[in-house]
Amino acid sequence: MAFKSILTILTNPTDAELAISSAAKLARSQDAHLDVLVLGVDRTQVGYSYIGSGAVLMQVGIDRAEADARALEAAANAALAEESGDLRYSVEAVVTQLGALTDLVASRARFADLVVLPRPYGPGIGSEAEAVLESALFEGKAPVLVLPAKGLGENVVPKRIVVAWNQSAEAMAATRLALPFLKAADAVNITVIDPPSQGEERSDPGGMLCQLLVRHGVHAEVSVLAKSLPRISDVLARHVWDQNADMLVMGAYGHSRFREAILGGATRNMLEKAEVPVLMAH
Q: Rounded distance, CA 227 to CA 244, Å?
Protein backbone atom coordinates (compact mmCIF):
# COMPACT_ATOMS: atom_id res chain seq x y z
CA MET A 1 0.00 0.00 0.00
CA ALA A 2 1.13 3.56 -0.70
CA PHE A 3 -0.40 6.98 -0.21
CA LYS A 4 -1.84 7.85 -3.64
CA SER A 5 -4.41 10.47 -2.63
CA ILE A 6 -3.17 13.14 -0.21
CA LEU A 7 -5.46 15.86 1.11
CA THR A 8 -4.61 19.08 2.90
CA ILE A 9 -7.24 21.45 4.32
CA LEU A 10 -6.64 25.15 4.92
CA THR A 11 -8.60 27.49 7.20
CA ASN A 12 -5.85 30.06 7.82
CA PRO A 13 -3.83 31.85 5.08
CA THR A 14 -0.71 31.87 7.25
CA ASP A 15 -0.65 28.05 7.14
CA ALA A 16 -0.86 27.79 3.34
CA GLU A 17 2.84 27.72 2.53
CA LEU A 18 3.74 25.29 5.34
CA ALA A 19 0.90 22.85 4.65
CA ILE A 20 1.16 22.87 0.88
CA SER A 21 4.95 22.64 0.68
CA SER A 22 4.94 19.67 3.09
CA ALA A 23 1.98 17.94 1.42
CA ALA A 24 3.53 18.52 -2.02
CA LYS A 25 6.84 16.94 -0.92
CA LEU A 26 4.94 13.91 0.34
CA ALA A 27 2.86 13.70 -2.84
CA ARG A 28 5.95 13.71 -5.04
CA SER A 29 7.71 11.12 -2.88
CA GLN A 30 4.67 8.81 -3.11
CA ASP A 31 3.78 9.62 -6.74
CA ALA A 32 0.44 10.78 -5.36
CA HIS A 33 -2.21 13.34 -6.27
CA LEU A 34 -2.57 16.31 -3.93
CA ASP A 35 -6.03 17.71 -3.21
CA VAL A 36 -6.20 21.12 -1.53
CA LEU A 37 -9.46 22.10 0.19
CA VAL A 38 -9.70 25.73 1.31
CA LEU A 39 -12.51 26.64 3.68
CA GLY A 40 -14.12 30.00 4.26
CA VAL A 41 -15.92 29.43 7.55
CA ASP A 42 -19.01 31.39 8.61
CA ARG A 43 -18.86 31.51 12.40
CA THR A 44 -22.13 33.44 12.87
CA GLN A 45 -24.16 32.36 15.91
CA VAL A 46 -27.63 33.49 14.78
CA GLY A 47 -29.30 32.02 17.86
CA TYR A 48 -27.67 34.66 20.04
CA SER A 49 -28.63 37.67 17.91
CA TYR A 50 -31.38 40.22 18.57
CA ILE A 51 -34.78 39.56 17.01
CA GLY A 52 -34.90 40.91 13.46
CA SER A 53 -31.13 41.12 13.05
CA GLY A 54 -30.53 37.45 12.20
CA ALA A 55 -30.75 37.86 8.43
CA VAL A 56 -28.32 40.79 8.49
CA LEU A 57 -25.83 38.91 10.65
CA MET A 58 -26.09 35.86 8.41
CA GLN A 59 -25.33 37.90 5.31
CA VAL A 60 -22.39 39.61 7.00
CA GLY A 61 -21.05 36.23 8.08
CA ILE A 62 -21.42 34.75 4.60
CA ASP A 63 -19.74 37.75 2.99
CA ARG A 64 -16.82 37.46 5.41
CA ALA A 65 -16.53 33.71 4.80
CA GLU A 66 -16.52 34.23 1.03
CA ALA A 67 -13.76 36.83 1.35
CA ASP A 68 -11.78 34.43 3.55
CA ALA A 69 -12.22 31.64 0.99
CA ARG A 70 -10.94 33.88 -1.82
CA ALA A 71 -7.92 34.93 0.25
CA LEU A 72 -7.17 31.32 1.14
CA GLU A 73 -7.52 30.19 -2.46
CA ALA A 74 -5.12 32.92 -3.59
CA ALA A 75 -2.61 31.91 -0.89
CA ALA A 76 -2.94 28.24 -1.86
CA ASN A 77 -2.41 28.95 -5.57
CA ALA A 78 0.61 31.11 -4.76
CA ALA A 79 2.15 28.32 -2.69
CA LEU A 80 1.40 25.74 -5.39
CA ALA A 81 3.01 27.99 -8.02
CA GLU A 82 6.29 27.61 -6.12
CA GLU A 83 6.20 23.82 -6.51
CA SER A 84 7.74 21.96 -9.43
CA GLY A 85 5.65 21.23 -12.52
CA ASP A 86 5.50 17.48 -11.96
CA LEU A 87 3.09 17.87 -9.02
CA ARG A 88 -0.45 16.68 -9.75
CA TYR A 89 -2.96 18.69 -7.74
CA SER A 90 -6.40 20.27 -7.55
CA VAL A 91 -7.76 23.17 -5.49
CA GLU A 92 -11.33 23.43 -4.20
CA ALA A 93 -12.65 26.49 -2.38
CA VAL A 94 -15.81 26.07 -0.27
CA VAL A 95 -17.80 28.37 2.01
CA THR A 96 -19.38 26.60 4.97
CA GLN A 97 -20.90 27.31 8.33
CA LEU A 98 -19.07 26.04 11.37
CA GLY A 99 -21.88 23.62 12.16
CA ALA A 100 -21.73 22.04 8.68
CA LEU A 101 -17.96 21.74 8.60
CA THR A 102 -17.87 18.19 9.99
CA ASP A 103 -19.81 16.57 7.15
CA LEU A 104 -17.92 18.54 4.50
CA VAL A 105 -14.47 17.62 5.79
CA ALA A 106 -15.49 14.00 6.39
CA SER A 107 -16.76 13.62 2.83
CA ARG A 108 -13.36 14.69 1.46
CA ALA A 109 -11.18 12.91 4.02
CA ARG A 110 -13.01 9.61 3.49
CA PHE A 111 -11.53 9.35 0.00
CA ALA A 112 -7.97 10.33 0.94
CA ASP A 113 -5.19 7.94 1.89
CA LEU A 114 -3.61 10.60 4.09
CA VAL A 115 -4.70 14.01 5.38
CA VAL A 116 -1.93 16.53 6.06
CA LEU A 117 -2.82 19.38 8.43
CA PRO A 118 -0.99 22.19 10.22
CA ARG A 119 -0.99 22.12 14.01
CA PRO A 120 -4.52 23.04 15.23
CA TYR A 121 -3.38 24.82 18.39
CA GLY A 122 -1.52 28.08 18.92
CA PRO A 123 -1.88 31.87 18.83
CA GLY A 124 -4.31 33.15 16.22
CA ILE A 125 -5.68 29.70 15.35
CA GLY A 126 -9.47 29.46 15.38
CA SER A 127 -11.61 26.63 16.71
CA GLU A 128 -12.33 25.48 13.14
CA ALA A 129 -8.78 24.10 12.88
CA GLU A 130 -9.43 21.59 15.67
CA ALA A 131 -12.86 20.84 14.16
CA VAL A 132 -11.19 19.98 10.84
CA LEU A 133 -8.74 17.63 12.57
CA GLU A 134 -11.44 15.84 14.53
CA SER A 135 -13.76 15.57 11.52
CA ALA A 136 -11.03 13.93 9.42
CA LEU A 137 -10.18 11.50 12.24
CA PHE A 138 -13.62 10.57 13.56
CA GLU A 139 -16.04 10.95 10.67
CA GLY A 140 -13.60 10.68 7.77
CA LYS A 141 -11.78 7.68 9.33
CA ALA A 142 -8.56 8.88 7.70
CA PRO A 143 -5.02 8.93 9.06
CA VAL A 144 -3.94 12.50 9.77
CA LEU A 145 -0.38 13.77 9.67
CA VAL A 146 -0.13 16.88 11.87
CA LEU A 147 2.79 19.13 11.01
CA PRO A 148 5.01 20.93 13.53
CA ALA A 149 5.86 24.58 13.03
CA LYS A 150 8.92 23.69 10.93
CA GLY A 151 7.05 21.37 8.57
CA LEU A 152 8.42 18.02 7.46
CA GLY A 153 12.09 18.83 7.97
CA GLU A 154 14.90 17.33 5.93
CA ASN A 155 13.54 13.78 5.61
CA VAL A 156 10.35 13.77 3.55
CA VAL A 157 10.11 10.03 4.12
CA PRO A 158 11.01 9.58 7.82
CA LYS A 159 14.05 7.44 8.60
CA ARG A 160 13.45 6.96 12.33
CA ILE A 161 9.90 6.56 13.68
CA VAL A 162 8.56 6.15 17.20
CA VAL A 163 5.28 4.24 17.56
CA ALA A 164 3.42 4.95 20.81
CA TRP A 165 1.90 1.59 21.81
CA ASN A 166 -0.67 1.11 24.60
CA GLN A 167 -2.60 -1.91 23.22
CA SER A 168 -5.56 0.30 22.28
CA ALA A 169 -7.65 0.06 19.13
CA GLU A 170 -6.62 3.63 18.30
CA ALA A 171 -2.91 2.79 18.49
CA MET A 172 -3.46 -0.30 16.34
CA ALA A 173 -5.36 1.71 13.71
CA ALA A 174 -2.60 4.33 13.58
CA THR A 175 0.11 1.70 13.22
CA ARG A 176 -1.66 -0.14 10.40
CA LEU A 177 -2.35 3.06 8.49
CA ALA A 178 1.26 4.20 8.94
CA LEU A 179 2.67 1.05 7.29
CA PRO A 180 3.89 2.85 4.12
CA PHE A 181 6.06 5.06 6.33
CA LEU A 182 7.08 2.25 8.68
CA LYS A 183 8.23 -0.04 5.85
CA ALA A 184 10.35 2.70 4.33
CA ALA A 185 12.01 3.71 7.62
CA ASP A 186 15.48 2.64 8.67
CA ALA A 187 14.38 2.08 12.27
CA VAL A 188 11.03 1.89 14.07
CA ASN A 189 10.91 2.06 17.85
CA ILE A 190 7.75 0.66 19.47
CA THR A 191 7.47 2.56 22.74
CA VAL A 192 5.50 1.18 25.69
CA ILE A 193 5.15 3.35 28.80
CA ASP A 194 4.25 1.71 32.12
CA PRO A 195 2.69 -1.44 30.61
CA PRO A 196 -0.12 -3.01 32.66
CA SER A 197 0.76 -5.95 34.88
CA GLN A 198 -2.30 -7.85 33.62
CA GLY A 199 -3.31 -8.75 30.06
CA GLU A 200 -2.05 -10.81 27.16
CA GLU A 201 1.08 -8.66 26.67
CA ARG A 202 2.16 -8.61 30.31
CA SER A 203 5.18 -10.88 29.72
CA ASP A 204 6.28 -9.28 26.45
CA PRO A 205 4.99 -5.70 26.08
CA GLY A 206 4.89 -4.68 22.44
CA GLY A 207 6.16 -8.09 21.32
CA MET A 208 3.19 -9.09 19.17
CA LEU A 209 3.11 -5.74 17.41
CA CYS A 210 6.85 -5.98 16.77
CA GLN A 211 6.34 -9.46 15.27
CA LEU A 212 3.57 -8.16 13.00
CA LEU A 213 5.71 -5.29 11.74
CA VAL A 214 8.82 -7.42 11.22
CA ARG A 215 6.79 -9.76 9.01
CA HIS A 216 6.07 -6.70 6.85
CA GLY A 217 9.79 -6.03 6.52
CA VAL A 218 9.84 -3.25 9.12
CA HIS A 219 13.07 -2.80 11.11
CA ALA A 220 11.33 -2.68 14.50
CA GLU A 221 12.41 -2.89 18.13
CA VAL A 222 10.65 -2.33 21.46
CA SER A 223 11.44 0.13 24.27
CA VAL A 224 9.64 -0.22 27.60
CA LEU A 225 9.77 3.01 29.60
CA ALA A 226 8.70 4.04 33.08
CA LYS A 227 6.40 7.03 33.50
CA SER A 228 9.21 9.14 34.94
CA LEU A 229 7.52 12.47 34.17
CA PRO A 230 4.06 13.75 35.20
CA ARG A 231 2.42 13.19 31.80
CA ILE A 232 2.67 10.40 29.23
CA SER A 233 3.13 13.06 26.55
CA ASP A 234 6.22 14.38 28.37
CA VAL A 235 7.81 10.93 28.38
CA LEU A 236 6.94 10.43 24.70
CA ALA A 237 8.31 13.81 23.68
CA ARG A 238 11.60 13.17 25.47
CA HIS A 239 11.86 9.70 23.95
CA VAL A 240 11.25 11.05 20.44
CA TRP A 241 14.12 13.47 21.07
CA ASP A 242 16.38 10.72 22.48
CA GLN A 243 15.70 8.54 19.43
CA ASN A 244 16.34 11.45 17.04
CA ALA A 245 13.05 10.42 15.43
CA ASP A 246 11.56 12.05 12.34
CA MET A 247 7.95 11.05 13.11
CA LEU A 248 5.66 9.91 15.91
CA VAL A 249 2.79 7.48 15.26
CA MET A 250 0.05 7.33 17.89
CA GLY A 251 -3.63 6.65 18.40
CA ALA A 252 -5.79 9.74 18.78
CA TYR A 253 -8.23 10.52 21.59
CA GLY A 254 -8.21 7.40 23.72
CA HIS A 255 -10.67 9.25 25.99
CA SER A 256 -13.74 11.15 24.84
CA ARG A 257 -13.12 14.45 23.08
CA PHE A 258 -15.07 16.21 25.84
CA ARG A 259 -12.82 14.80 28.53
CA GLU A 260 -9.72 15.68 26.49
CA ALA A 261 -10.97 19.23 26.02
CA ILE A 262 -11.74 19.75 29.72
CA LEU A 263 -9.00 17.76 31.43
CA GLY A 264 -6.39 17.56 28.71
CA GLY A 265 -4.94 14.36 27.33
CA ALA A 266 -2.01 12.79 25.51
CA THR A 267 -3.39 13.72 22.08
CA ARG A 268 -3.67 17.45 22.67
CA ASN A 269 -0.52 17.62 24.79
CA MET A 270 1.54 15.91 22.08
CA LEU A 271 0.19 18.14 19.32
CA GLU A 272 0.96 21.26 21.33
CA LYS A 273 4.59 20.34 21.96
CA ALA A 274 5.62 17.96 19.16
CA GLU A 275 8.62 19.06 17.13
CA VAL A 276 8.20 16.27 14.56
CA PRO A 277 5.20 15.29 12.41
CA VAL A 278 2.62 13.23 14.30
CA LEU A 279 0.60 10.62 12.41
CA MET A 280 -2.65 9.85 14.19
CA ALA A 281 -5.72 7.71 13.62
CA HIS A 282 -8.79 6.77 15.62
A: 20
